[in-house]
Amino acid sequence: xxxxxxxxxxxxxxxxxxxxxxxxxxxxxxxxxxxxxxxxxxxxxxxxxxxxxxxxxxxxxxxxxxxxxxxxxxxxxxxxxxxxxxxxxxxxxxxxxxxxxxxxxxxxxxxxxxxxxxxxxxxxxxxxxxxxxxxxxxxxxxxxxxxxxxxxxxxxxxxxxx
Amino acid sequence: xxxxxxxxxxxxxxxxxxxxxxxxxxxxxxxxxxxxxxxxxxxxxxxxxxxxxxxxxxxxxxxxxxxxxxxxxxxxxxxxxxxxxxxxxxxxxxxxxxxxxxxxxxxxxxxxxxxxxxxxxxxxxxxxxxxxxxxxxxxxxxxxxxxxxxxxxxxxx
Lengths: 162, 157
Fold this sequence. Notes:
By secondary structure, chain A is of the alpha+beta class. Chain A has helices spanning about 5-15, 25-30, 35-50, 80-90, 120-135; strands spanning about 50-60, 70-75, 95-100, 110-115, 140-150.
């Protein structure tokens, strides 16, 4: 891993969330035995390197009424997916869009696009938009709705060593 | 973790503004709640209390830094299993017990358990998938990311 031991401890200390106190970075610094400014400088450096994507709130889709969350999956011709993938990803209702390997014969799908809505009918309509965009390059599709969140913690590092 | 919508009156306009504004980022300043609060017209202690409540009622799942395992030299991988219904809870418990499992969802498909492994060393994906197979006796299909076309969705509260 391309981070030093102090960064690792900083990540381990903050991966469950920031403390909800007026000076959260000072509080983290106290726990780690480093200065408040060093905590902020290290977090800024990690962010500049892309290791911290952002410091932010993560809304709970379900709690906020987006109760229909479907993983739409598509079997898109290999010679077209590099062109069409970004177009699917650019649709405003697609939250994540990835190219992944097929697992033949069980799983013919190579393009994954998460679609969120307030009802399954709304998600199905959006799925139809993706189908129209892909056109003849798409040979099959499915959608897998989540019925339960079993775990959602984000990445966790071991507190000590590897 | 909450899977049902909150009652319509659970959030007021200020709560919604907080969720919308803080999805994009939070200041790296000595008094970040005071600074973020100033943008929202809220006092420091009011913003802290509201974020704590949003967390407690399940309107937000997390508040803090989001890490990218791949940028650290590690890796993420989406995995799927076809778990017999009568074993589902026990298998979910075994899979969730692993620290490397960052998310896990039940989905309505023959492949009914979908989880994400986040590891510090790329080789750990295959090793942990094999360990889960050995522990459960169920094949683990791995779907590594070959290309990412978009991430940046925002939820409007």
